[in-house]
Amino acid sequence: MQKVVQIRFKPGGKVYDFDCGAFVLAPGDAVIVETERGLGFGVVAAGPFSRQEEEAGQPLKKIYRMAREQDLAQLAKNRGLEQHARNVCRGYIQQLGLKMNLFAVEATFDASKLTFFFTSDGRVDFRQLVKMLVKRFGVRIEMRQVGIRNQAKMCGGIGRCGRELCCASFIEKFGPVSIRMAKEQGLSLNPTKISGLCGRLMCCLTFEFDTYRELKQGLPRIGKTVTTTRGRGKVLRHNVLKGLMAVRLTDGPEIEIGTDELVTEKDTAS
User: Domain 72-146 in CATH: superfamily?
Assistant: First the structure.
């Protein structure tokens, strides 16, 4: 049996399992952990909880130690380096005339590697740019091209709901989003109203899609002619959350009824 905690290295990022060892940790604690790229700074996202060692598969890396004041100072120093590297790289991009949008730079905890994140409409030959950056900073350089949704996740922002972007706060992995989800929830299909800051369909369209689809199963489709206890009519719209539907009767008035007021063929026969 081993004690396991989940560590997150950046807000809204993926969580990773680590062996807690003898440390007494709680969510929010800052720690230094062993990673494939050396020591890293992370924050406890959940745990600790017990788990059989055989359940973990490959052996888990361990918590190296609790974060100290000098670690926080190193983190602040890295933020300054990232800002400086971003400004320098943008200057080089303009100088070389490269068609790429650099939006973020990340440094490893020991500042031995800088990763430059950018978006572009196509492939970019950045070999000369890498040579210039290596000569300027004297560390390992990685250029990483990402999609527009990843850019929104890394940069963050406020959505039309007034809250922090879901992708930047808690979504760890992007799932498929389709226009059908907006149709199923009766939302406006105006692209400006169902698109996020990234210009893609909003991730939150997936949150209630399954619920709406389940609630609609007992309701006749819009446009169908139905027989009610008050006469025949055509279904105009659904009020899914209340389990009601608006029906325009043949003789004119519009009524709102539930499925209990529908008359089936069996009821008519009896």
Answer: K homology (KH) domain (3.30.300.20)
- Residue 266's alpha-carbon distances to 3, 45, 102, 230, in angstroms, are 61, 57, 66, 17
pTM of the model: 0.75
Mapped onto helix, strand or coil, the DSSP state of residue 106 is strand
CA distance 188 to 194: 7
What are the counts of helices (DSSP H) followed by strands (DSSP E) for the chain? 8, 12
Residues 61-113 pLDDT 10s: 888 889 899 999 999 999 999 999 999 999 999 999 999 999 999 998 888 89
222 with 183: CB under 8 angstroms? no
Task: Report, as an integer, the average pLDDT of 26-30.
Answer: 89
State the DSSP code for 227: E
Summarize pLDDT for 173-189 with one digit per residue, the tens. 888 999 999 988 888 88
CATH topology of domain 219-269: SH3 type barrels. (2.30.30)
Domain residue limits, the chain: 2-67, 72-146, 151-211, 219-269
Q: Please name the amino acid found at residue 156.
A: G
